[in-house]
Amino acid sequence: MIAAARFLRAFGDALALRQESATRAAMQRAADDACFARLRDLLHDDPRPLFRFGRAGLEYGALRLIDLEQWPWSARLAARGIERLEFTALPAPGTLAAFLDYAAGLLPDGGLAPRLTPDGLRWGLELGDANRQDDGYPLEEELAVVRDIFRGVERGDGVRGGDAALVAVVLDRNVGPGSGFTLPLLQVRAREDYQPAHALNTAVLALAVGRELELSPADRHEAGLASLLHDIGMTRLPAETLAVDRFTPEDRAVLRGHPLEGARLLLRQGQSFESAAVVAYEHHLRSDGSGYPRLSYPREPHQLSRLVAVCDAFDALLAPRADRPGLDPASALRQLERSAVTQFDPAVVGALGEVVLRAAGQGTLALTTRAI
Amino acid sequence: MSFSSSALADLLLALQALVQRLRALPPGHPSVAAAAQGLERALGPLLRARERLVIEVRSVQLTVDGMETNPDYEPLRDLAIHCRESGVGAIEFRAGVTPDELIAVIGTLAVGAPLNATAHCLLRPLLPATADGLDPWLALERVLLDEPARPRAARHSTELAIALELNPVGAGGDGQLLAALTAVAVDAVGDDAGRTALIEFLDAAPAPALRRLLSPAGDREARRRFLSQAIPVLPPETLLRLVQVLVLGREARISGSSLRLLARLTRDNSPRARPALEVALQCALDGGEAELPGVRGTGTLEPERVLTLAFETGIVERGTLAAADRMIEQRQVAPLMALLDTVPREDPVARAVRGQVYHPRTVRQLLQANPVDLDLLDRLVPAAGIEAAPALLDALAQSPERRVRLKLLDLLARYGNAVGPLAAERITGMPWYVQRNLLSLLGRLTDLPAGFTPGPLLSHRDARVQYEAVALALTDPALRDPALARALDAGHEPTVRLALASLADYCPPELLPRLLARATDAASSVEMRALAVSAMAPVNDPVVLRFLRRLVVAQGITGLGRLAPKSPPMLAALRGLAAHWSQHPKAGPVLDAARQSRDEEVREAGRPPTRRSSASSFRVTPG
Question: Which residues make Cβ contacts (< 8 Å) with residue B514, sequence separation at least 6?
Fold first, then answer.
């Protein structure tokens, strides 16, 4: 069961105990603690969970939780004036307990206006579409999925293959004809989100360039999957190495291990990840034989590796570093073009140029600058 | 005729007791036999008045003779459920049934083995829910409401969805439900009303019931069939519901964040929703066992690259071995082996890949190439082991190239006696040239396979097969003499020569007439006649002495002899006399004359051998 459903069950248990006169304080505290723990888990998965309650059932974001279709508290909460409940941060345990008291009807009715606690708990009436949360950001959920993939690997859970395949399918449609937003790219402000955002950007670029290069849908899908996972080996490097602003030569040596780590990780996932493993291993190899890792069997990088290498480098140039600001797309493109003959596949760089210039000309090159 | 409810109740309880003991006790346990006798006793009065008695299985009840068991009575309820889960629709008993039959048949029901039947006791399988031409909704109703005789569909799809929750049937019954639902989904294509009804059914069905229906523990194939039919006709909202149903326990593949993404796409009517939901459904459906859907490209990933990556990373997985397979299929065995040669023998990835490559399948692939790379074959076969012998034997039978066949014979012979049985079992019924090669192979082994005899092939119509059969038979003391007799009668010169050469060691006296015939056969070459003379010389028979003298001495008109003109038969006869008959009075003058000949070769032939065999002096007796 997903974290939201687990939280709501704990939430319902805590409410139910409040309505039983015989409930002892210790039991209620235990139920509140369980509810708080489930909420913490939920916020780990979803930083801004939003629930809507009504007679017809409940929604979590846009999802109707089918395991809670008969959840009795949905109608009761709506009747109490709580048609929506949102968490923007983990509230203090006392805040959550107070809200539970209110929701259970133990506190006086506070009217219909939405409430907001200082520590991120928001509830109130659903006021129709005008009041619907709309972040205006097209890749919010995609980023959340990629973030989960990276976190899962960090925890040692392995790669969530279904998630990765899903995002690759969705992104491919994103950059397809008539999608309306050709190149939505994320700019990263929080270091811990760099890898997921970079993975997503690289995938968006690789899929768009793949279309430009007229790759088959299946090859494009492999390109999308591989670019989402090309830096997954970073999750296996020591956190302290990644935490610094400027890398020492020793740090760089450690960083150069990520292709090998990534390839190993992906090969262990099975045959579906073979292309992704090849790309993870080869995306820092250069056409002139430079780059890393050192090959025991010298060979040209695979075409998907050459594709992802260009997109990876382009997105890296857009991102600000400690020793330089992020480049604008045109400058990044020029820099790539200068290296195209010796280091990158000129055809891929050319295709990227076409995609970027076309998007810029159409005004659809969106560098999303929201903080994440 | 109906029976008292107590008699029927006794019967059902006796049946339940037998099933229970068969499940709990080892075969042959005295309690099992006692329970079987108890059931036989219960059946006795019931089968006295009729030929047969059938206990029908409903979802949670058994019915017999119109009497239904109480669904709340747990022992019989459990028995009914167990029957359905075992795919048993009815149990039939016939007059004359014995306790042993009861144990044999009910035993299969008890342990879930394939259904058994004897002359007096049989288990009837549950019938499929959807017979040909049956309205699929009616079929669904029949299964869901457990009313097999229901005449027409009368329930709304949402009512049926509730019935799904109440239907407690196990895996076997769910298979029937899925079959009925699959038929509904097939019917829903192009039928808006049917499609709406299916959507309503799935949307109204409680999540736990749907989850049970689509459980991985159930009928996997039925589930796949249903989803493949249903997915195209269902809207994204219903697909999302199915994803939620399937994803429980599969969160390692599809996370909560993916569900939120899918929900958002669905809510926004995004064109991305359906393909994404389909991917999610397939991932959730396949669990961790199958490949991810839609992620394989057009095969642009060269297998050699996959293998080198495996060597460089030290990771071997299914794809690594599959890559080796692909290279073999693409007839890239040479580069594959060259690649393996670059990796240390102890490398674990290389070891695994070698295990895949040094395999009879690879040998077979190699042999299908044109031209066959014999050097590669030479390297591969020893590593592939005796398991590759059948492939080599197949190729030996089929290859049109002599150089390949010779190589194959050589490689097969290297297996030693282990290949003997494999070769011997293929001889019968094969074309003559295959038989010849197989016999030739057997001839290169130190021992013939147990039970094999070349005897039947001594009379093969093809002389070349005969030759190889004779060669083999000469090594077998029991077959040697008949083989020699047949060989001496043969018209095939190599076969005759083979026999004559082998007679140099020992010649059975009974072969003498054949040898005389050979030695005097004007159609034979002088070398062949000389061989025949040499072969007969040791035979202790006056006829031999006379024949040898006649070859050595030319008879004049006066009857006095002088040495005949030198020829291979004459020299052979002279050597025979010197070796085996020198002590005989009639041989001495002839040998003396030969030793005085001016011809060095004749003089040499007339001298006694430097090492006279004891056999020769033993045999010589005055004639």
Answer: B485, B488, B489
Q: Does residue B249 belong to any structural domain of this protein? A: yes
Last residue of a domain, one of B286, B310, B337: B286
Contact across the interface for A145 and B306, Cβ inside 8 Å: no
Q: Which residues of chain B does A2 touch, with a Cβ-Cβ cutoff of 8 Å?
A: 247, 251, 255-256, 259
User: Mean pLDDT score of chain A, rounded to an integer?
Assistant: 83
Residues in chain B with pLDDT < 50?
A: 1, 129-131, 170-171, 288-299, 612-623
The answer to whether residues A141 and B257 touch, using CB atoms and an 8 Å cutoff, is: yes
Residues B121, B97 contacting (CB under 8 angstroms): yes
Residue A137 has pLDDT above 80, yes or no: no
ipTM: 0.83
Nearest-Cα residue of chain A relative to residue B268: A62
Confidence category of residue A36, pLDDT binned at 50, 70, 90:
very high
Give the helix/strand (H/E) hosting B419. Answer: none
Q: Do B315 and A264 touch (CB under 8 A)?
A: yes
SS3 A273: helix
Reduced to 3 states (helix: H, G, I; strand: E, B; else coil), residue B41 is helix
In a domain, B441, yes or no: no
- Answer yes or no: are the C-beta atoms of B29 and B64 closer than 8 Å: no
> Homologous superfamily of A140-368 in CATH?
Hypothetical protein af1432 (1.10.3210.10)
- Chain B residues with CB-CB distance to A263 below 8 A: 309, 312-313, 315
| Alpha helices per DSSP H over chain A | 3-19, 25-45, 73-79, 93-103, 140-155, 161-174, 194-212, 217-229, 239-242, 249-255, 258-267, 274-282, 303-318, 329-339, 346-362
| pTM of the complete model | 0.66
d(C-alpha A125, C-alpha A6), whole Å? 23
**pLDDT, position B125:** 64
How many C-beta atoms lie closer than 10 Å to residue B533's C-beta?
Answer: 28
Q: Within 10 Å of residue B45's Cβ, how many Cβ atoms?
A: 13
Which positions ≥6 away from A292 have C-beta within 8 Å?
Answer: A256, A259, A284, A285
Boundary-marking domain end, from B125, B155, B187 = B125
